[in-house]
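COURSE: Structural Biology Practicum
ASSIGNMENT: Worksheet 4, Part C
STUDENT ID: 0417
INSTRUCTIONS: Below are two proteins. For each, the amino acid sequence is given first, followed by its structure token string. Answer the questions at the end about the second protein only.

PROTEIN I
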Amino acid sequence: MKGKLFYLFWSIYRDIVYSGLEDGTVNKDLRKKIVRFNQFVLLALLVNVLSVIVYFVNSLYISALINITSAYIFLLAFYFSAKGRLEIGRILSIINVNLYLIIISYVEGLRAGEYFLFFPYFLVLTFVVSIRRNYKELVIVYSLTIYSLILTIFVSPFQNDIETINDALYSRLYNSNLILSYVLTMVFSYAILRVNKDNEVAILQEKKFGDTIYNTSLDGVFIMYADSNIVASCNQRALDMFETQEHREIEGTHIENWFDEEHIKRFNSIEKAVNGITQNWQGELSFTTKTGKTFPAYVSVTSFHYKKTKYIKISILDIANVKMTEFELMKSKEKAEAAAKVKTRFLSNMSHELRTPLNGIIGSSNLLLQEEYLPSQQSHLDILRYSSEHMMVLINDILDYNKIEAGKLELANSPVNMKMFVERVASQFASQVTTKGLLFVTDVDDRLDMELMTDETRLNQILSNLLSNAIKFTHSGSITIAARKIFASSTRATLQFIVRDTGIGIPANKHREIFESFTQADVNTTRKYGGTGLGLSITKQLISKFNSELMLESKEGKGTTFHFTVELPINENRKLYINEDRSKTLASLEGVHILIAEDNNVNLAVAKRFLTKWGITVTDAVNGREAVSKFRPGIFDLLLIDLEMPEMDGATALREIRKIDPNIPILAFTAAVYDNIQADLLQKGFTDFIHKPFRPEDLHSKISLQIHARRA
């Protein structure tokens, strides 16, 4: 039962004291103020309640009413504090206490001893009032309280007849107020001592925490007087770094004693800069230990003030190990560079020394095959030619790999008709495939009949390596080479190349390994099929030069598929294959005014040539922004807008023009190819679209259709 009552009272006390702190956003200092204020209000209310009971017992109803009023004002102050308006609550409570003591002393007279309560009230002000650095607030409140005490003594009579108080009751009131004042003074004195002790412990703990951080820092730290360059303090790491045992070996010494002679002048200039405008400095300096050992360090120098004294803090990080590591790395780099030069020189010499006799062997074997020879010599000559050519392939692989590894391989950039290129690569391997009895499938997208800018030689090498591997590892079934256009704009095209076979396949656990240098699927593969194991590694690195990645799909015994995607620029100076003979028979479109926006000069010139032949007045713009600025409602009958243009693209230009004239027909003039292109362009707001390169009759038809619909 006692435990339950104690818990009940404790819960009530906790709810009152911690009122206003429920949201958890109050900082530490404000939290203390609120808790102390709530404790003060709770104690004042208890005094008021106790006084009301005493006054009612002694039939002093006016005094009881004054205490009830005071309690009500304290509750109002508590309400303001709980609502986050602590300052109003504090002001209200201070005024309430002073008015209460003045009024109750006047009503009862000085003989009742109510003025004794001013003394514990002086103490409680340290809990209610925030003591700032200038003590302004505390001085104001104390002055108000002293004035209230003086006013009470001078205004209040010694004995008043407002209430009926006999001598015995005056004696009891005097004694009770004296005791209450004494008890409250003791309580608040103890509370002040307890708070001071807690603050002292907190300060000591913070100092201990700071010292721990200071002494466990990885940096050695010197605190130096700015005016004399004398070391005022140092941490434990500084003692270890400078090979000393005690602080007094460093503290009190001149900072120059610990610098390498070559860096003393440099530090003096740094110190002047830090004392001036820059305030801090960072860089490398050299120091000397007590035993004369020199070590390099990364140093941070900064200045600060404490109690009107200027100090300089020097943080020192020993980088001797870092310097040693840098030195070792430099030596290793020099050795590696020397080894690379030796390797390059060796491979260059080997290239010449091996290729020269091999060219002779290959040439001689071809000459022998063209001359008369005995039938029994045919097989020997074939072996001779095959072996020498195979040796040349191996040497080329090694030399190409070395060039890629050295970063010396650069891609060329020349116009290539992609459809003709892929068909030409396929024709090179057609005889090898048919000789092995395999089906050779060539799948080339007709839309690749266009000129793209690329390195034909390296692209040929990539496809040749993949096809050679496919032929080597396929004994039955088929080999496929495919090329498709995935996406195209007016300036660039995205292509996918695929080489597929039905050969021996690659185990799943070897998919990564086969791209490593000098690696094949297993030892048996090397023994059975030969090769250096560099083909796929070279191919993968060549494809990376095209900003792409070689992808592999394969299952053991079920064939292999290699594919990669490249994005290539379209040749801006390409020939446009347009049949101008057909355009001569198309009807005139005299009186039509068209605005065309196209950033490609060739495309713009060709389009204008046909439009003007049909009698159309043409206004041109080189980007979307210019098209928007040139557009005027009522002037143009139709707009041709390219999708991809600098500064402002076609879709953005369309939106801006639609704000001016929502009904003007606008055709998308684009080389883009993707699924649902018509639905996508219509959704963006285009009336229709025309592909580049265009057929004149298609362009004429679409323009005529839109003009007739607009004028109908």
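PROTEIN II
(use this one for the questions)
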Amino acid sequence: MKIRFIGPLGKVTGSCTWMHDEANDWNFLVDCGMQQGERTAAEWNACDWPFDPAEIKFVILTHAHIDHSGLLPMLYRKGFRGLVYCSRETAEIAKILLRDAAELSDIGFTAKDVNAIRWHEPRRSPFFGQFHSVDRNLFVRFFRSGHVIGALSVAVHWGAPGPGQRSIAFSGDLGPNVEDEESLPFLRHRMYAGSNDFAVIESTYGEMVRTAEQNDPAHRRAQLRSLLDRTISRAGSLIIPAFALGRVQDVLFDLHWIVAENPERYEGVGFHIDAPSARKMNAAVLEALRRTENNGKNGKVRPLWLGKQMFRWFGLDDKDPTHVRTVLDICHMTLGAEAGDDVQLPACGNAVARAWRPLFRAMTNRRQHVPEEDSRASVYVVSSGTCDGGPAAWWLPKLIPSTSNTVALAGFCSAGTVGGQLLSLAKAGLEERRRLTGSLDWPGGMTMPLAEIGADVVALTGYSAHADQTGLLDWILNHHKDELRLVGKAVFIQHGGDMQREALAEAMKARAEMEGTLVQAMMPADPDLWFDLDKDASEISDEACLREMEDEIARLSREIARRRGIPGGKGSSMPGRGQQRGR
């Protein structure tokens, strides 16, 4: 079995890994995502792949985010006819995201292409940890990654069952929730993906170590409570642009919690949600949270996705069916019901649980709502986390001129987005802002001079759905009942900037030494390079190092030739990148 890391190498988006075994006619992908916000996005998203889509047998999809799933419709358009293996929750959420994306004029695919996708969740039970056969002597195992609803880590096993079978685990995107120390609501903790010969890990936050405060849900809610109190004191508006999957749901939960802690204080606040995509997501999330599974080994019935923290936080017992229904009712009031709906109110649990009520009203016609005429404090949760489009692009021009209002951004926004430009103003006072030239510009022609922005701008922290460096290391070097377990003897680091990858590699080496073991860290840099997974990890590592040295020698030879003025800069016959033997 060979593996080729097509993307992303030194980047964060555009996940796509190609696996191939010519002798067994195995030819498949792990993820097939778009690049978003990358310098090379246009080139990548043109789908000039190094493989023939018609020859790909199947795709394993770790989760629904567009940077992992976004080119699936194009794969089918160009000849792929196989199955996409994933959780059924990922399939439902990906359909929503891809159909929304298909409405964009420059996306390259249509709703018809999305409808052509053949989603498939293997039916053997239990779902997690089970060996699901995808071909003769080829199996996949799924594990919850804790990133978003439906998200998986995946282990691929090849060869006849027994001592000679080999395997590689893919982390997918890993979430921050650790068992019994969960920080985000709804989702259960990430799972260990078994012991394998190799592993592939993302490194989005490979150089970041969060503080205990940053992982504390009470601290996260405290900053949001402070903004809500400030909004009340000014009789202003608080607008929270957030991503439709994961971020909107977490923000809604925290706002409900804050109000349930002190219902009288927030009784007069108007809560509005204008996030059509997120409301579709909410229905899929609620369905997922209700899903249970019977573990055949011990007969226990457990939720697949609903986290135990929801029971701890509300003073409830996850083994009591009545309490389970209460938590699901709370989830429904948060994500599925509207203010004033006739709902089943909690009759058990702590004071926060018993005070929980639906808060938000969905805006079906935003043009009928005039914020300037609303004299009470108001909260608007709107979709489009980067603020470049969607409801956020409609609301922001109306709300940000007023000094009574606050914009709270709940996710990362790159510098070139409207959200990123707003964040650059966060520390600038009004007098300083009035000296600014330039403007915020939205697609469609809406524009606003930076000097006219009066609203406070705040970055909310604690909502990241990604594990930090500590979480990534814990997935690789996992402790269970005082026993150290390695997810892979050698680990390929991808899906992150080179600084993040290098920081994770150094931290991995240090942690392994501290644990008295060895883990080989490899950072593939060449998307043309195949790695032979039927070799030992040390052989692969040595071969990769030799090829990197050959590439560096070739680069230096060309530079020497250029400086000596040799025509064409050809100073060495040493093979350069893309020319190594065995390609």
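ANSWER KEY EXCERPT:
Q1: The first helix runs from residue 41 to 45.
Q2: The CA atoms of residues 126 and 295 lie 6 Å apart.
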